[in-house]
Structure to design on (386 residues):
């Protein structure tokens, strides 16, 4: 079991409806030492790639993206969510659905910060149905940048996001893949990797 | 002139309507080495305080808060913005107006992550009218935590946020205070500190 899986077992809380709360250390209150470790681990796993930028989406991806980007010593870019429909022409734009908030947002990245020269590592804290990640992949495609790898802290293995993105041929690595969880017993089972 | 003022002169863009765009290095694309330097500088300035947590607000405050919190080796907490009106009882809640987006948001922090034991350093990327900061101060007050210091990357000195918060007696330090700026000539004048 790796450091993140251990931490999830220690401090994660399983709620009804397949909700895993990790807000005491990963996406509301944040443990800076854990973030540093996550950054180092993704750097170790993707060190063979010539990454030029780390891309994520606001808000909770930002800290992880920074942790990773500082290990690669490259800039990080975060896509912004907006509900405004008047996006000016210097933005790459796509639309994503939010599983948590049950709404749709425009996701935007300035054209100045992604180009066909870029080799991207996309990172995020969670992967469930993959809506946010599909949005980032669309943005990358619009820019012509190549997506060299995708690093996720926690993947819900029983939802289809991870499978569908791996099926597209992307190199996707998740530090912890939750195979099943149970709110009544607070049991969390991880996929063997 | 310090490292941040130099960077603003080099890469900041002044737009009509007193808008200073620093999105190439601070709040859309982020320079990780600059963030590291900002973290170290705030740690140096507030090293005399016995900080237990760093508090900020999503989204662009998150990276700076992490940079600072890792220097203090304490957790960071980011307040979330939400438009939902059904906030459950375990949240500290306040309402803030957004200068940029011209709307109002609920700002929330889980009660589990702030208490009267905490000595807070509040950080954010920008201070203009101070609406977001007033929201964080309200949240801190609701929790009983003491606000030991406030660290801002860029303050618009010609707007009233900084003055009103200093008048309340808070120890507020901004790395760069813009006294005036001009879109036609791309001139930026900083306050001598």
């Amino acid at each position: 079991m790796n450091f993140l899986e251990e931490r999830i077992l220690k401090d994660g809380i399983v709620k009804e409806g397949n909700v895993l709360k990790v807000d005491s250390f990963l996406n509301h209150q944040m443990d800076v030492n854990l973030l540093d470790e996550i950054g180092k681990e993704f750097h170790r796993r993707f060190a063979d790639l010539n990454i030029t930028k780390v891309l994520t989406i606001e808000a909770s991806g930002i800290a992880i993206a920074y942790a990773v980007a500082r290990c690669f010593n490259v800039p990080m870019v975060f896509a912004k969510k907006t509900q405004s429909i008047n996006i000016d022409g210097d933005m790459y734009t796509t639309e994503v659905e939010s599983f948590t908030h049950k709404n749709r947002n425009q996701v935007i990245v300035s054209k100045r910060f992604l180009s066909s020269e870029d080799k991207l590592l996309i990172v995020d804290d969670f992967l469930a149905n993959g809506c946010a990640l599909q949005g980032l992949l669309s943005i990358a495609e619009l820019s012509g940048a190549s997506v060299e790898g995708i690093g996720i802290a926690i993947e819900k293995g029983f939802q289809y996001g991870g499978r569908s993105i791996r099926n597209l041929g992307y190199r996707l690595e998740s530090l912890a893949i939750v195979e099943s969880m149970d709110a009544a017993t607070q049991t969390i089972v991880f996929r063997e990797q």
